Amino acid sequence: MNKCGFSLKSALEVSKQVHFETPCKPDSVLAVFKKYGFSKSHILNLVRRRPAVLLSKPKTTLLPKLEFFKSKGFSSPDVIKIISSYPWVFKYSLENQLVPAFDFLENSLQSDTVAIKAIKRFPRILNVTVENMARVVDVLRDSGVPEKKIALLIRSRPSIMVSNLENFKKLIEEVTLMGFHPSKTQYIEAIRVLSSMSRSTWEKKLDVHRKWGLSEEEILQAFVKCPWFMSLSEEKIMAVMDLFVNKLGWESAYIAKNPTFSSYSLEKRLIPRALVLQFLVSKGLVEKSFRSLAFFNTPEDKFRQNQFVSATEVLRSMSRSTWENNLDMHRKWGFSHGEILTAFVKLPCFMAMSEEKTVALMDLFVNKLGWEASYILPKTHV
């Protein structure tokens, strides 16, 4: 046991489950794993998970299955990760279980590479009989789900293949009754979300949304638009609603109608942009009634090019007194406060110009060329 790296306590626990008269057999097993690149921690992990592996026959049990993985295109790190986390693959017949299971997945997914990814995501799928996997696929086909969408479900949630058939049929029926169409990707997403949680967890999430004044109909409509809306933790739901409803003053119904808001990271996306929006509202550049999905779902690089963000950066770069001086200077040319703010939102950089340059430009165009000041204001960046 010392060769596996076990503590005395762990070694005693393992020794209760496996018995051998000499160390020859376990030594030969360890030698195979070391030859295939398994580290001491990997071996320790798989032996702890399945001590009986130490009683395996290297030539007839271990080596053929290790070579099977390699022959199918699994990399050495993949094989090590799969087996150290799920050593029960050694328990099943290569010819009667592992090969047929892999072939079924490869055929269903139309790619050995994609089949490998599915197995890496959920190694236990190799121990599901072809008959059981076929029954799950048949339920989807009978419900009108296209082959490409079936492949998408298996690829993204391979654990669906271990579903209890009767429960799976009820799940499919529920998804259909909710209004999802089997030809759409949202149908697959709904299956993934619902199959990942218990009924009690679903009810708890409904209750959290109800606390914010949403009806069950509004919640389900949001779920149909964006199934991941209901995959969020109760804590994330509360935090998102608190941000938009309590801090920004938006209606919870607006969030439910635009559920993709909730999918973004609070720390990286929602809170930083909410702060920008609050700042703009406080300066009178944006109405408090402003509502925009685009303000939050625009990619970061494009968002930084937005005039609102530019306006925020200009405002934060100057003191309150400098801002007020710039306002007074423009008022002297006959502009109202509203006209100045409108021009600022269009071209934030114009309020960052020095007083001397602004006066010189206005004097040139208004006094010398005779242009109207109202025509010049939004173009003072020239």
UniProtKB/TrEMBL annotation:
<protein>
    <recommendedName>
        <fullName>Mitochondrial transcription termination factor family protein</fullName>
    </recommendedName>
</protein>
<dbReference type="Pfam" id="PF02536">
    <property type="entry name" value="mTERF"/>
</dbReference>
<dbReference type="InterPro" id="IPR003690">
    <property type="entry name" value="MTERF"/>
</dbReference>
<dbReference type="GO" id="GO:0003676">
    <property type="term" value="F:nucleic acid binding"/>
</dbReference>
